[in-house]
Fold each of these.
Amino acid sequence: MSDTIVTLPDQSTARIPKMNYLTKENGLLSWLLTGDHKRIAILYLISISFFFFVGGSLAGLIRLELLTPQSDLMATDTYNKVFSMHGIIMVFFFLVPSVPATIGNFIIPMMIGAKDLALPKVNLLSWYLYVAAGILALYTMASGGVDTGWTFTTPLSTHYVNTHVLTTGMAVFIAGFSSIFTGLNFIVTIHKMRAPGMTWFRLPLFVWAHYAASILMVLGTPVLAIAIVLMALERTVGIGVFDPTKGGDPLLFQHLFWFYSHPAVYIMILPGMGVISEVISTFSRKRVFGYTAVAFSSVAIAVFGFFVWAHHMFIMGISNYAVLIFSLLTMLVAVPSAIKIFNWAFTLYKGSITFETPMLYAFGFMGLFTIGGMTGVFLGASGTDIHLTETYFIVAHFHFVMVGGMLMAFLSGIHFWWPKMTGRMYPEKISQLAAVVTFIGFNLTFFPQFILGTLGMPRRYASYPPEFQILNVFSTAGASVLGVGYLLPVLYLTWSLKYGEIAGNNPWQATGLEWQVQSPPLTENFPEIPIVDHEAYDYEWLERQKEKEVASVG
Amino acid sequence: MSDSTAIAHGTAEAHHEHPPYQRHHFETIAQQNDATNFAMWLFLLTEIMFFGGLFTAYLIYRNWYYPAFVQGSHQLQIGWGTANTAVLITSSFTMAMGVWSAEMRKKGALVLCLVLTFTLGLVFLGIKTIEYSEKIEKHHVPGFHYSVQSFVDPASDPEVYNEYHDKPLALDMARHTELYFFLYFAMTGMHALHMIIGIAILGFMIFRARAGAYTTGHVTFVENFGLYWHFVDIVWIFLFPLLYLINRHPLAH
């Protein structure tokens, strides 16, 4: 058994195809006015990477401050602003658009055999909205920032703080519309643009996951928009809707906000799960075990995801019956998530597993997401939640899901589709090293925070009792390792753009339609629209295709 | 072999000849129309969710502060509200006729229908302005020198008092009328904003329709705008009973 499935063309003769989406037109304007989903994906990739490093630097500042028990690196209110901006940038400007707007944008039309997304102009508009919102957020940060936390909690945000709540709220509002347009475009495309023969149950699971996430974007984000509008009106005009002295109720804001922001968690994680399905199948050379179950579990997560929001409010004075019901519903969401993890595990069983970089990241995802998900059940149980909420346990939990889960999935996807996007391979050994460094750094950073939380260290404070220092030092040390793990891909992926080996059409021997065309693809993706006559992940079909190719050349 | 492929290729070429309004990434014009129509319906779904937040707030606060919401509702002029409902329904009719004219390729009728819809939209906003200015005069705009005078002492507002004979509210309940008026302004204001956007697009469409843009068989834009206009209409169909009519004959005290 070989330890790799990578097949690259003969490097002495291989060339990048002269005609492709990158060389079709030149000049800045051809990018800024493009309707090509692949170019928009690249624009998105550049912008979200930038925001990731802005958010990451803020995280670095937080960890540096927490190295010592006293508040010494920055003033306490500066610390509040730093963690608020870290949250806002990472959630709205990195995690929500991360996989859908980059990889999804690039790959979904190719996976379903279409020339583009259904609405190319709306797609470009969504990028411009994202950029406008991003600039507004950066302007806010430069002019003093905001210190409400990323949740804009009322009445803090409406009555007490004196920072830039309105401009930040506006930035989030605009970014929300960017995400609505992405989701809307995906749903229309998946319904109406599939190639002949591409039935719903022949779709790769990546597409199913994005379909489920898009439903959440389309239905949830408008509610966030109205919540922010009401918050802004309360702050400027004093309309009373969240003001108890006028009969309003701050809890209403929480309900509206979390009605979006809990499903938003699934907007962030579902596309990542889609990536993992593709990667696990490709590198164990097997059809995903229980295809239908995995497909429907995405939809189930989307549906259940809308009925669990109040578990963010167990200690905020909602009724005991509501706590009971939402606690139960929260546990139910764990079921479809577990279905996915078990099915991936069964896909690996007796597969021909190889350990390329995307697969290493995918393994990282499976382990870390499982821990993140199971600690979520602790928090869904109202008894333990009352003890653990607002402590570092929460911080560790959602970082395990969002960073350990989603970011690992994002990196896995970027490494998986990089040869398709650019036509070149990155250096194998150093990228495997980066995956391992990220995994170690991540665990060192966030595992101690579970212990800190259980011991009772509250979140969102710049200082803490000295007995917590040792674990915080571990965490800060881990964050430095993690930082290296994230910088490495930027370096070698950039390097590979010019010096990487030529990847050829299908370096991983994967089955998706996107792998059956040239890399980088043509602007119209397919010279002629393919007719699909096989199931997803059909490796025998792929073998037959290769035989045909050899026969026809011979 | 080469002959048969050439023929097949030839027919494929012929198949790819399509009208100028077909975007390159669609296989057929039917697929394009289908996709844009579907996208519009999805967009309207997001709009429903957007208004949904306000309807939720209305539902909760009405339940909590029933007397304040009753008396707040009595301040609205049912006459103007009814007139506006009629105006809006008529405009939906002219819009539907516009879509029909576009499909039938009747340019003159299309322009006429669009102009009528445009005018009726403006009439709606005009009536809304009259209603808003009355609220401003009575200090019923939340946040701007809001006054509870009409509710703690209903007799001081003879016009409304003679019709409904409301009992005075205690001060703390009377203050909750501010929430009613906020929701009134938020919901009708958001609706009016959608009307303004619609009217602006209508202006653009009239301009294009006169140049003959929508009467050559490609009516998707007019059709989708029609959907938007009907949606805005339907929102009003919910707002009118909820804000104006619901306490016309309140439960016996």
Amino acid sequence: MKGNFTESFMKGIFLICAVTSIIAILLMCIFIFAGGIPFIQEYGFKNFLLGTEWKPSNIPQSFGILPMILGSIYVTLGAVIIGVPIGLLTAIYLAKFSSKRLYRFLKPGINLMAGIPSIVYGFFALVVIVPIIRDVFGGTGMNVITASLLLGIMILPTVISMSEAAIRAVPNSYYEGSIALGATHEKSIFSVVVPAAKSGIISSIILAIGRAIGETMAVILVAGNQARMPVGITKGVRTLTTNIVIEMAYAADAHREALIATAAVLFVFILIINGAFLVVKRRTNLE
Amino acid sequence: MNRKDKIVIKDMDLYYGDFHALKNINMKIKEKYITAIIGPSGCGKSTLLKSLNRMNDLIEGLRIEGNILLDGKDIYGEDFDVNLLRKRVGMVFQRPNPFPISIYDNIAYGPRVHGIRDKKRLDEIVERSLRLAAIWDEVKDNLKKNALRISGGQQQRICIARALAVEPEVLLMDEPTSALDPISTAKIEELIEELKRDYTIVIVTHNMQQAARVSDYTAFMLKGDLVEYDKTEDIFSVPKDKRTEDYITGRFG
Amino acid sequence: MSRLLKSVVKLSAYITFGVLFFIIGYILVRGIPNLSPSLFHLEYTTENVSLFPAMITTLMLVFLTLIIATPIGVFTGFYLVEYAKKGNRLVEVIRIATETLSGIPSIVYGLFGMLFFVVYLNFQYSLLAGTLTVGIMVLPLIIRATEEALLSVDDSLREGSFALGAGMLYTIFKIVLPSAMPGILSGVILSIGRIVGETAALMFTLGTATKIPEGLFSSGRTLALHMYILSTEGMHINESYATGVILLAVVLIINYVSTLLSNKLAKGSNDE
């Protein structure tokens, strides 16, 4: 029965490996929340989330993260406004307009785009987009618009690949039915095929929002990073993610805990977005 | 006619969840004969066949009551090694399923599973099995060729050779020719006739002529019941059950 | 109306691919002339701004991470696809866990790595802390690739193997794994890309030391981190371009190989 022992032993090993992910996620929750929640309780939930002043070096210190929450929302919204229409239309192009031969070039292009490190995107934005914005709007060129443009580009591959897959998954009979009624190629795609792919497209947007909120290193380079309430799209902002990176290196005591608490808030945002994604996805699978 | 019973199925019931797929099956399969199982699709013939080497174990929610004895020993008994059972009761599938490796490695796969490592022994086994499956002459110069790169009929004979390589006592065949053209089918049928000398063969087929041509005994199943089981000539000439007669005559037109 | 729609669609595609080619072209054109030999000095000094130590550190990090994450990810895939029964609760939970992991931003990984590996387990800023942090990060990628690859292997092959009396393990390693290999490899290769491009998760785990790490417990910096630090300092823009070229080259190679592999996988399953 030596064979059977090896079989059950290895099955056990596989099971342990499979549980690793669960352990990892639990540990992450424990350490981030255990590090952040006590501070939030002490400082006051409302003061922390809705406080408009982030001044860790003042006496007394103030740790309101509303500026960063708004900063994250601004640049994410900007990214969605720029990235989603272009991404979705590009997905439609890839799925329904491009020739097979062209597609064989373009598809790897999208994968490549997804593979480019965020620091390269950020650096590109720093040396190309920032000067242009500076020329157009004055100031430093590091502001909400720049960060939105950068993130808009960075979420393109997410929006494109998932929307394209969703559009391709729509049965061809929908399209044919519309064509048979005398509608044009374009009309059929926009009024029949794309609506049928709705839930897949929504998932892609949710995922893209998650990417944009979570992006850090690229945003630092171009967002300006001023820890103040946003004062307009041509001025700099600081996001939740960049707040952590910029100050973590030298933070201590309450300041450090406040940063971990910032991560906890970000984590909750992401969990909500992930949850929404899973719900939409599950609904799509059930349909 | 006094050959021993190789497999005895006693009061066997099989359930998929709530679905009663096989109902009180009793059947004795004689050694070194060909036994055919026929019936309309969904009657449970493949399920019955797969119970004989416990391939059904892979299906979730499956429950079996009663006994299946191989040489008098219950194959569902606790001390019965499934892998050893499958070595003794080989199987050929409906669709040829050679592994995506060389022809040689396909045939040597089973012997290697059961611990044969010696190159010379393996060479012998491969050649003997391919000869038994009547495909040696066609592939002997191409043993390193990927088994997916030969025709469907050849693939099926490779699969038969692969099953034979572990020296089974029983060979189960699940509609082995349904995916093949008539010429390949004829070759496989000829081969089955040959193999009967050394092996007990149970073949499931939807093709009644095939059953009539190759088998010694035929079982007719309907909706999970074993309706009639007798010598093939009797089943096809003087069926005792009305349902058997309807099925046979209905099919023949 | 139709013509307008068509133009908008085309225009969007032009923008997307225009941006892509512009980014790559711009970095390459500006960066390649800056790939001077002094960047490849064994040791980093403020004069030569060598990126060589960062290259070696990147290789070490990739190697160590894959050694840990690949078996765990692939074995998880085995469990999920080959062993777990349908409707198994645990499988549900594992799926949700991996999906959630794949959505967590790298900065959260970085902070977790800092709190858990660097501080709690007292690894300090080190290769080990960095490895374990990005190891968890690429796990979902490898798991998903393995799952998909295993699912694409025809069940009739498994049946064929079981029918010859082979056990589960033998069947997995001799029949299923070889067929699934291209898909798994392409997941592993994408993970390499992820590790090479990572910054936020490494800053507070691997640290930013300029030397090649002497062991598991010493700090270092990867190419991407190096590029980030050069960019924020603003003193060495040319060297940043050069680092960007190397990162892009790695990404291009990785994408090329993974495309080849997935084509092979697609072809393999068409063969039948």
